[in-house]
Structure formats: C-alpha cells, structure tokens
Amino acid sequence: MTIQDILEIKALLSTPKKIAIIPHKNPDGDAIGSTLGLLHYLLQLNHDAKIIAPNDFPDFLKWLPGVETIKNHEIEKEETEALINDADVVFTLDFNAFHRTGNMETVLANSNALKIMIDHHQQPDDYAKYMFSDVSMSSTCEMVYHFLDKLDALNKINTQIATCLYVGIMTDTGSFRFRSTTSTTHRIIANLIDKGADNTAIHNNVYDTNSYNRLQLLGCALSNLKVLPEHKAAYITLSQKELRDLDYKKGDTEGFVNYALSLNDTVLAAIFIEDKKQGIIKISLRSKGNFSVNELSRAHFEGGGHTNAAGGKSDTSLEETVEKFISILPTYSKALNNE
C-alpha cells in the first residue's frame, strides 16, 4: 500500500459512507477481531458501517464488543446482499479471494463498491483497488493496527478496538508462540494493553470456557490420533457420528490439530473432520520449520493459507481422504526429514 493509496483512502473516509466489512467463511478470532476493530474505528468517523459474515462463528468469540451487530448472510441473505449492493466501500479482511466467503462469492464479485483488502495470506487475487497484503504479518488484526497507524488514527484506538485486535493477534499467533510473532507484534500488544485491553480477561474468555462435551470431544480426537514416524507426520480424524454424539458446536475443534503437532519429532499434523451437510471433509494442516502446508494444501486439497498453517477440503469419504493424505507423504519425505 503506497503513500498515495493512504492519501486517497484518507480522503475517501473523510465523509460518511455506506461500508460493508466482510470476513471469510467460518470466521475465526482474527477474522472477527479485525472486522470488529475496524468497525469501531469507522463508527467513530460517522460511517454507516456493517459487518456481514458468511455464516456463524464460535461461541468463544461472542462476548466481543459489538459482536451483536454482526449480520449473518446464511440466515439474513436478502438483507445482507442488499447492504453489499448498496455499499460505497467494501472492506475484505483476513481473506484474499472471493471464494473464501462461500455463498457470498457472487454478490461480492458483482458489487460495484470500491474494495479495500487487508490480509496476510499468500497469493492474493486482484480484485481490490487498494491492497494491504503482507504475508510476514502475524495476523490481520496486526495489519489493522498498522492500517490505523498509516491513517494517523492510533489516537482513535479505544478499549473496544484494543480488545478486538488483541483477540485476533493472540489467536492467530497461538498465544504469541508462532514464528510470525515478532518484537513489533509484542510492542503492538503492549500498546493495546495500554489502550484498555484486559489480557487476562481476554485469555479466559477465549480459552477457559470449555463445555463438558468439548472436552469429551477432545478426548475422542486424541484417541483417534495416528502417528506416521517414518514421515514425521501425525493426523486426527473426527467422523460426523462422533461430532453428533458429543453435541458438537461450531468452534469446538479449534486448536485440536496442534496436539498432533506437539508430538516429539512431528513436523506435519492434520485433522480431518467429516461434514456431511456440506458433503466434504474439512482439513486443517499445521507444520514446523520451513515445511509449507500452504503448498501441500493448494496442490492436493483445494486450500491454502500460510507456510505453517493452512486449510483445505476433500470431496471424498473420510477414509479415502486419509488414504490420499498418507499416499502423498512420500513425495514430501525429503522436505519433512530435513526439518
């Protein structure tokens, strides 16, 4: 994003606009935190701004300030599409290709609104007039902070914005332990605490609100854990029946794949979750070092993401998906063993 871009965005936002703010489908802490953080800033400038999420998001994020204003396209299709069609500006946050919004892809592609992308994933599509794209950033929430800094608007950060941005940075960095966490990230976190983010309360609200059924589901996932030591890989499966029997709620499997990655001498971890409603197997991939699960997912599972964290899907059965995963590992043997 150039200096000229920033000057033009400042001019654009200097008068009230109708603005739609869009996260990706199945929004996580970074997607919800970044959209809410931006929303609270835009509302201070008297814009008519709305967040439109493609679908629902986990309960552990539903305490965030302003979350009750988020529109759900899945259950408010006509209203939300009208908002997008009427918008002067559309911000897309934490994704860089319209297909990542599921059933909202067409309405976004057809929108005549000026589009601004803020995202840290690899290989962005070229749909936005203004692109703030940086794969080195820990999170989109960190990018929103830098975006506000570029707009000379850090003085606008209040407790609400600080709380939302803190959540996204915390969750997307694995509580500040991933390699993308830099000294700059920590300085931003310190500033957000100074602005009112209560780090203890935030951590408790996100991580310490387990239901009994979620812990039982974690136990089930760990009992399904399989290790492939010859490939330095491990994987977890969860069937639709197992999810149903343990009263699965959206977000319950968040972080499960990291248990597989935590095993000694494991470089690659995966979790395969059956979703019969969508007719797919949802896949989350994690890795250590320089092994790129982004490349693996793009090549084999219609997905992508970051070097060490990516997602994908499969249209075959759970068993066939696992078999495919195991079958491709020899192709990556050298890279996995070099790590």
List the helices and strands and how they pair.
Blueprint: H1 3-12, E1 18-22, H2 29-44, E2 48-53, E3 71-72, H3 77-86, E4 89-93, H4 105-110, E5 114-119, E6 130-133, H5 140-150, H6 159-172, H7 183-194, H8 199-207, H9 212-223, E7 226-228, E8 233-238, H10 240-245, H11 256-261, E9 268-275, E10 280-287, H12 293-300, E11 304-305, E12 309-314, H13 318-328, H14 333-338
Parallel strand pairs: 1-2, 1-4, 2-3, 4-5, 5-6, 8-9
Antiparallel strand pairs: 7-8, 9-10, 10-12, 11-12
Rg: 20 Å
Tell me the major beta sheet: 6 strands, parallel
Q: For the terminal residues, how far apart are their CA atoms?
A: 34 Å
In N-to-C order, the SSE pattern is HEHEEHEHEEHHHHHEEHHEEHEEHH
Secondary structure tally, helices: 14
pLDDT below 50 for ≥5 consecutive residues: which ranges? none
> Beta-sheet strand percentage?
15-25%
CATH topology label of the largest domain: inorganic pyrophosphatase (n-terminal core)
Overall pLDDT score: 95
Measured as a percent range, the helix fraction is 40-55%
The CATH top-level class label of the largest domain: Alpha Beta
**What would you call the shape?**
globular
Description:
It is built from 14 helices and twelve strands. α2 (29-44) runs parallel beside α5, α5 crosses α6 and α6 (159-172) packs across α8. The protein has two domains: 3-207, inorganic pyrophosphatase (n-terminal core) (Alpha-Beta Complex); 212-338, Diaminopimelate Epimerase, Chain A, domain 1 (Roll), CATH 3.10.310.30. Strands 3-2-1-4-5-6 form a six-stranded parallel beta sheet, sandwiched between helices. Strands 7-8-9-10-12-11 form a six-stranded mixed beta sheet. The chain starts with a helix and ends with a helix. With 339 residues, the protein is α/β, with parallel strands linked by helices. It has helices at 3-12, 29-44, 77-86, 105-110, 140-150, 159-172, 183-194, 199-207, 212-223, 240-245, 256-261, 293-300, 318-328, 333-338; strands spanning 18-22, 48-53, 71-72, 89-93, 114-119, 130-133, 226-228, 233-238, 268-275, 280-287, 304-305, 309-314. The model has no long low-confidence stretch (mean pLDDT 95).
